[in-house]
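Posting for a labmate who doesn't have an account.
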Amino acid sequence: MPVQVRSEVVSTRRAGIYHVLTLTADGVPETTRPGHFVGVAIGDMTSGLLLRRAFSIYGVQQRGIYGGTVDIVVAATGPGTRWLAQRHRGDQVELVGPLGRPFMLPREPVSCTLVGGGYGSAPLFMLAEQLRQRGCRVDMILGASTEEKLFGVLEGKRAASTVTITTEDGSLGETGRVTDALPEVMERAGSEVVYACGPMGMLASVAEVAAERGAYSQCAVEEAMACGIGVCMSCVLPVIGNDGVTRMVRSCVEGPVFQGDRVRWADIGTIPPDTLGAPEAAKRDGVAGSVAGVSS
């Protein structure tokens, strides 16, 4: 079960354009698995930033001088994340975690390819460690638009059998996107499972490539998760269930990890007319409705 913790900043460091924060979090590391996330409160008691921000858990430590700690990676792109990136050692923040459904691990040793886009690669290093402990081969592909937006290149080289780097501008590694390199890596490694975390467009392409090659894919989606506990319904997306029926499910509770070929990537942001419980007007007209209607 997730716990709510009044946390203290233990350390901060820069990793390219990103900020890595280590936070005290008693009770969180013990139940954390790769793919879990935490919801961090932003601002102080007088702040107008009311909604928590969701961050994938980059790493945990169960014991130490500060007790249990969690590491998160912050890209300072807006008022909330800029506020968090400016925290110093000893500052306090409130967090809830671990949240969501994590990556599922294979029961038997298989060849796995891990694909990360930008700082979306953060949860993949803990995943790589646990896969190797199960005897799995691990290959990684890390990509971003530019070199400075890559995350974890050196760590990836320690965590995986091979690491392929891609940048869209060619500033480091191969020129192109992660999905340009994915088919060759899968073929070379004989990959049976593909794990991915990054922008939604990247995840859609990774799921498509994996399906074309008969591999099972798991994708950790990057949806805005205002509450993180399934109440606000702001992070819903259409997913096909085991019974073949499409439902609007919550990324923060039923996800953030989904089977890649079950997500209706092209319909994200809408309610497809064949969705269970879709508005009657959408069913009648055969036109996708707006997700905004779900949370009203």
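Reply:
Got it, the structure tokens are right above this. The mean pLDDT is 91.
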